[in-house]
Amino acid sequence: MIAEFDKIIVSIHPQWVQYAKDLIAKYIDDDRIVVIEGGSERNDTVMNAINYIQENFGKHDDDVLVMHDAVRPFVTRRIIMDNIRLAETYKAVDTAIGATDTIVRAVDGEVVEIPVRSYMYQGQTPQTININAFQNQYLQMSEAEQRELTDSAKVMLLAGYQVGVADGEESNMKITRPYDLRIANAIAKEDSDV
Predict the structure, then answer these.
(1) DSSP assignment, residue 78?
(2) Is 18 among the domain residues?
(3) pLDDT for residue 194
(4) CATH code of 162's domain
(5) Which domain of life does this protein belong to (predicted)?
(6) Of 78, 91, 115, 189, which is the most buried if we count CB atoms within 10 A?
């Protein structure tokens, strides 16, 4: 566990809250962990976490929230610490790796742009935000904007903040498709054999 975290908030679908609490109680002994209900959209979940923090610990200008997706189980301590370090300079931090494939933007089945690959990155998590700055911007947005902007770093960009980039890692993969799960299982097995 990362000692620098004051609290570890697990935001989860309401139907799975008790199950998550039971699993954590069984396998992890850390009283910093709390399980709360997530929201219907990603930013609703972020706001639920922010509301929990404010209700239980108050509001401080330098508070940051480091957000990580459970579908990326191989995040490293180095990535997390880089996010924390960069949050001292930036109001938002995104984790990314340089694109190895050419990125193609298409609309209606036709290529409309092929950006220069050396400027393209693939976003990962964690993402880190200054809580006050994010909340101020998010609450000014229309409901439609809140639903459309599912990326916290983009919300901060729209607010005019510079977003720092923490170097990600290929191993910090997202498990989305059955093939990803096969790769993740192979990585997990390899790590357990060591």
Answers:
(1) H
(2) no
(3) 59
(4) 3.90.550.10
(5) Bacteria
(6) 91
